[in-house]
Write a structure and sequence with these properties.
The chain is of the alpha/beta class. It folds into two domains: about 250 residues, Rossmann fold; about 60 residues, no CATH class. The protein contains nine helices and twelve strands. The N terminus is likely disordered. It has an eight-stranded mixed β-sheet, with helices on both faces. It has a four-stranded antiparallel β-sheet with strand order 10-9-11-12, with helices on both faces. GO terms for molecular function: hydrolase activity. This is Dienelactone hydrolase. Keywords: Hydrolase, Signal.
Length: about 375
């Protein structure tokens, strides 16, 4: 997509693999609420990103982590994972990020609490997460543009734990899964994990019934789940018969726990692509679409702001301009209408006559 044009071109050039960039991609996005009795009438917050074709795309079910502070859960939203979801959509999947109960606008409070630190109970918490993921799968199975046959699942941190737990009770159609820095229970101090032995035992329990091929990726400088613990989790899982390939990734930034991020995709997508290729799940990688044309006779400051707009990775967004060179933009809005309204308001602080130049990743049409 245009907003990733510069960085994704670098990504494509870095993949010395069998994949060849395909035609420029266009992508469809949709905000969803996942029906679930336990989530009440509101359902679970979700966001879908897929190629803009007319066929049914296999589901890539994406699961988020858990912040250390409970208060931070309310600030999370599915749009925040757009850049991650886009990487799966570029690879031919219908990527769905679902906010589990108690995160973002999904109701549920502390339903997935692990309890006190010393005796943190990871199996019941994982069971809650798996129920939420299964509700999302059931909802996607009824869509005309998504298929759960040949689907994959991927998760980060607590979402990695949830993904591993899902493979222990695999839904029909799940053929592969990926866990990035999987685990839970990390506290504020580096590599301080609540009931570490209980976490190891939870992974060992999942390994007794999990037979779905998995990829596990941990950076060697992960400050949540360090190399020694990561190996213990893997050993416990494999001892029970779990089917997983372990990757010890090079250090990433100041904390390798955040390797699985938009900024880190140059490092983690090669692992993903190799795994998909090994499983016979590789698709052509859609390259970014042609970039939006730059602003014409505008100031250098306006052009710099438009470059920032293009690089913004949180939909929905819009960029407004005025005939006298004024401009304004906003991103991360709940709806396109919100983004249009707020960007026009920002522009009108400088000029009474503003129009929309771009909305999300396309030039604005006539209004």
């Amino acid at each position: 997509m245009a907003l990733f044009h510069r960085l994704l071109v670098l990504l494509i050039g870095s993949l010395a693999m069998a994949f060849t960039p395909a035609r420029a991609g266009q992508f469809y996005t949709e905000d969803l609420r996942i029906p679930m009795a336990e989530a009440g009438p509101q359902g679970l917050e979700a966001f879908l990103v897929r190629p803009a074709g007319t066929k049914r795309y296999p589901l890539a079910l994406l699961s988020h982590g858990t912040p250390r502070s409970f208060a931070d859960r309310a600030t999370m939203n599915a749009h925040g994972y757009y850049g991650i979801a886009l990487e799966y959509a570029r690879r031919g999947f219908a990527a769905l990020i679902v906010m589990r109960r108690g995160y973002g606008t999904s109701p549920g409070g502390r339903v997935d609490s692990v309890g006190g630190c010393a005796n943190a109970a990871y199996l019941p918490a994982a069971a809650v997460a798996v129920a939420d993921l299964r509700a999302a799968i059931d909802a996607m199975a009824h869509r005309a543009d998504v298929t759960t046959t040949g689907m994959i699942a991927a998760g980060h941190s607590a979402g990695g734990l949830a993904t591993v737990a899902l493979t222990a009770q695999p839904p029909a159609g799940l053929v592969a899964a990926i866990s990035f820095a999987g685990g839970r229970g990390s506290r504020d101090e580096d590599e301080d994990v609540c009931n570490e032995e209980g976490l190891v035992q939870a992974f060992a329990s999942f390994g007794k019934t999990s037979r779905i091929p998995m990829l596990w990726v941990y950076a060697t400088n992960d400050l949540y789940f360090g190399p020694d613990l990561a190996r213990r989790l893997y050993a416990g899982f494999r001892a029970g018969g779990g089917n997983a390939k372990f990757v010890s990734a090079p250090p990433y930034g100041d904390d390798g726990h955040y390797l699985y991020s938009v900024a880190g995709r140059l490092q983690w997508t090669p692992y993903l692509d190799a795994f998909l290729r090994e499983r016979g799940l590789a698709h052509d990688i859609l390259s970014p679409p042609d970039p939006l044309p730059p602003l014409g006779h505008f100031s250098d400051a306006a052009k710099a702001e438009f470059a920032r707009y293009l690089a913004s990775t949180t939909p929905h967004k819009a960029f407004a301009v005025s005939p006298n060179g004024g401009y304004g933009w906003r991103s991360g809005r709940t709806t396109v209408d919100d983004a249009e309204r707020d960007s026009l308001a920002a522009c009108m602080k400088w000029s009474p006559a503003c129009t929309l130049y771009a909305v999300d990743d396309q030039l604005s049409g006539p209004r």
